[in-house]
């Protein structure tokens, strides 16, 4: 059986079209399948529509969160509940074409355990989004040793083995695509052109995007923490050389170094740098704090078509 996981947050406009297209593609594959919708605390008619879909077609399963927990957590819940031998994650807004699924299944049958879908082109997304996304993937690649493929989102197929190992990773500030690669199973990719959103607006405003990027970097690299010690030593070396120069002028010449401007500049630069390092430290400490609290990743209010599981800790 194949499980399709679809995180949905206020997607009432796209659900009917999504259901149509997914059903057409999945029927075409001849496989048995289930559609696991994770309703991430939607406030519009999303849950009502999902209920109707479930009543019409029992292959539609629904997990309804008590509030918005975020995209990455929704995907995680989907994996906790999915029962397929292969699991496919797909966005609800039809930016990831369901028609790519047969190709992914083919690679999976040939023995690949993780099939990523890499976007060679993104349509209908602003320059800002495209540029920041491209930059983010490259920074992440430079900072981490885990082989996280570039320009790959969460649209992917995973074998049951991969999903089972992911289920053991309960970290709170999750960056799922990194965790997937971290497992080290055989990866391959298919490529596609990313369509514009079918309807509605993005559910990833700038704030969520920044948080997401920081989660990716902090979960898979500790290099930012070392920036402070590196720059610190460079700056103190520069300071020491400058001190020698000032002493030399004072002792062996009759020149005096002019003070005010240089002091102000130094204070600003050094304090800025100190605060920045503290901020970086704060990002990591905050995440440690989140982990230590050991709260569950999400709270399920209701499920349709699957039995609700007990809340899992840690
Ligand atoms: N999503 C979610 N919870 C959130 C934000 C988004 O489940 O808090 C879902 C959303 O419904 C969609 C997917 O995650 O299915 C990707 O979101 P979106 O298309 O808005 O992101 P973008 O493509 O603009 O980056
Ligand atoms: Mg989208």
From TrEMBL:
Its main location: membrane. The keyword Transmembrane applies. Residues 3-165 form the Glycosyltransferase 2-like domain. Pfam families: Glycos_transf_2. GO terms for cellular component: plasma membrane. This is Glycosyl transferase family 2. The chain crosses the membrane at residues 227-248, 260-285. PANTHER family: PROPHAGE BACTOPRENOL GLUCOSYL TRANSFERASE HOMOLOG, UNDECAPRENYL-PHOSPHATE 4-DEOXY-4-FORMAMIDO-L-ARABINOSE TRANSFERASE-RELATED.
């Amino acid at each position: 059986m194949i499980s399709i996981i679809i995180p949905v947050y206020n997607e009432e406009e796209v659900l009917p079209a999504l259901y149509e297209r997914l059903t057409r593609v999945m029927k075409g594959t001849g496989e048995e399948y289930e559609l696991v919708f994770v309703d991430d605390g939607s406030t519009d008619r999303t849950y009502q529509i999902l209920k109707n879909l479930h009543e019409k077609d029992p292959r539609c399963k629904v997990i309804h969160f008590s509030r918005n927990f975020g995209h990455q957590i929704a995907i995680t819940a989907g994996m906790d509940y999915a029962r397929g031998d292969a699991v496919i994650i797909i966005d609800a807004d039809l930016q990831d074409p369901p028609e790519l699924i047969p190709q992914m299944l083919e690679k999976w049958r040939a023995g690949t355990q993780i099939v990523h879908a890499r976007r060679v082109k993104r349509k209908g997304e602003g320059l800002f989004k495209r540029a920041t996304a491209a930059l983010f993937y490259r920074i992440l690649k430079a900072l981490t040793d885990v082989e996280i493929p570039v320009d790959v989102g969460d649209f992917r197929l995973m074998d049951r083995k991969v999903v089972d190992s992911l289920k053991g990773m309960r970290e709170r500030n999750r960056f799922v695509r990194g965790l997937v690669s971290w497992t080290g199973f055989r990866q391959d990719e298919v490529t596609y052109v990313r369509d514009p959103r079918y309807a509605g607006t993005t559910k990833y405003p700038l704030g969520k995007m920044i948080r997401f990027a920081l989660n990716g970097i902090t979960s898979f690299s500790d290099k930012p923490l070392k920036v402070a010690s590196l720059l610190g030593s460079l700056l103190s070396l520069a300071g020491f050389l400058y001190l020698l120069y000032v002493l030399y002028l004072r002792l062996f010449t009759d020149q005096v170094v002019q003070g005010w401007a240089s002091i102000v500049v130094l204070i600003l630069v050094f304090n800025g740098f100190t605060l920045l390092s503290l901020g970086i430290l704060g990002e990591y400490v905050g995440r440690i704090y989140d982990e230590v609290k050991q709260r569950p990743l999400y709270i399920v209010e209701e499920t349709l078509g699957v039995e609700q599981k007990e809340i899992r800790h840690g």
